[in-house]
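== Fold encoding ==
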Amino acid sequence: MPKKLALITGSSGGIGAAIAAAASRDGYRLALLDVNAAALQATSASLPDATAFTCDITDAAQVAQVLQTLGQVPELLVNNAGIVKFAPLLDITVQDFRRILDIDLTGAFVVSQQVASGLRDAGKPGSIVNIASIGGITPSFGTNAYAAAKAGLIKLTELMALEWGALGIRVNTVSPGFIDGGMSAAVYANASTRAVRTAAVPLKRLGLEQDIADAVLFLASEKANYISGHNLVVDGALTHSLLNQIPRE
């Protein structure tokens, strides 16, 4: 029996690479997508049975070409690709706002639509896991289009689960909290920021890239075969801790 195929976007490093490594350990053949060709090739070379594709996920024609080259519909799709540019709403340019939405939200739709269509035509079940953020639940200053895109992705996941459930396609979201890695690596290089944020998490530690990878592979597994349309928040209970941040006399 051929291996199942996992297609992972934004997989040149960070959380995406951790998800790829976890999927490989679970026996998947890998299709890794990113626009960073050099880093993507390095990640791909470090994993068995992995193929790298330099691809702009906002370009439907490029995505279609990748799927055609693979010759197999992915049983697992992980939409991890995303960007952020911190700036107040009054300062961010319209061009930057649109670009963030295009990659973080529209790109996930473009890839998901094509994979879901392929699964439907092949009569195969599948799993899609979208990587959102706690910023899509409770926004923070300066996250502009990123917060809007991640909130949209959570709601888009619910709609995908509704429309594609009858096809045997489960769709879920993982929303990371304070993760010591990926696009947040530079944030936690600051010792003061690291200490303050670690103290704010009820579990008293920052999350790891592996924590997110484990959540994704759980949702993709048979153990989660009746879970669809769910947003799995992986944040050490941070989003429940608001009142704990405000002292009581």
